[in-house]
Amino acid sequence: xSDTTRQDLTQGNGHVTNGRPETSHHPExxxxxxxxxxxGIPPIKHAHWTWQIPVYFWIGGxxxxxxxxxxxAQLLGHDDPALKRASRYTVLVTMILSPIMLIWxxxxxxxxxxxxxxxxxxxxxxxxxxxxxxFGNLGGLLxxxxxxxxxxxxxxxxxxxxxxxIPERLLSLLALPFGLFVGFNTGNLISATxxxxxxRNWALMAPTFLASGLSTALSWLSLVLHLTRSGEPKxxxxxxxxxxxTIVIEAGLIAASLVRMSxxxxxxxxxxxxxxxxxGALLSGIAAPAALLFSGKQTRGKSILSSLLVLAGGLAxxxxxxxxxxxxxxxxxxxxxxxxxxxxxxPEDKV
Length: 351
Known about the structure:
Elements: H1 3-13, E1 15-17, E2 20-22, H2 52-75, H3 81-106, H4 109-115, H5 124-149, H6 157-165, H7 168-191, H8 196-199, H9 202-227, H10 233-261, H11 274-294, H12 300-330, H13 332-340
Antiparallel strand pairs: 1-2
GO cellular component, one term: plasma membrane
Keywords: Cell membrane, Membrane, Transmembrane, Transmembrane helix
Pfam families: NrfD
């Protein structure tokens, strides 16, 4: 063993057992660990995302999910004006807020502009930015037509022109794949990294985000329709059935993800993340609303409560994953075992 390594060990950067130094763990998963790095240097950089990114993931999923449900309902011949109105205005608001959240996190608006200069099909961030642009513009046209139908632009020639020129069914169909991609690709954004907890679950991260986004979207629509006392009874029944199916699918995907993550999923149960993941996402966001959705006759009060719980749980889920990713990136053993699928290298291997 080199003198430098011996000096590091004597200074408390490691421990020796039977002549071999023990590998340290991340302080969130091992309280005995004193340092956060391997040889004083983090193996990878963790994402410096602030609160705007998990909020963007959340509202983007709601926008995509509301358009999906509304379009499918329209294709099946279920033409509920209240549902269309809620969906179109929701897409408009979420697609305005989404780029604002991204630009806010980037710090400088020109960085977002630079991403729009060229489309890189192999870049999740590039494809996501372009999907936001296209989905947002198509959703904006649909919202403009809806505003004209609702008389928000006045009863004038412009309103009549918008209603005649904007083909709602065609635009809804054109926007559908881009909306699905926005909801699906948020999972790809984080799984296409070297962060162990995210990269390990690359196959299930995107479907899980899509299911969670659809679940929060259905809850949002249910909440709006119940609070405004609008929506046809068959719409509310269809929403209720969709909510129950989606929350079961989401729970199954999260369970499968935990199995897939294996030991690299430990940060989700660490002291700082467990309240968000276990308390917020699993208990408040899935278990409690599932109990309300599957218990007895559905009432307006139960629907509102379950919707609020799902929305809060969906947001907590995204914050938990981002926070767990930081812990995973700062854990050298997690990175080296994930990268090599074997034990992390020992300091004496450096000699």
